[in-house]
Amino acid sequence: MNACLDALRSGLVVAIPTDTVYGVAVSPTVPGAMDRLFALKHRPREVSIAVLIASPEDARRLASVGEQASRLMDRFWPGPLTIVLPRAAGVDLDLGGDPSTVGIRCPDHDLVRSLASDVGPLATTSANRHKEPTPTDAAGVAAVFGDELALVVDGGVCDGAPSTVVSLVGGELTVLRQGPLDVWAR
Question: 0.90 exceeded by the pTM?
Answer without folding.
Answer: yes
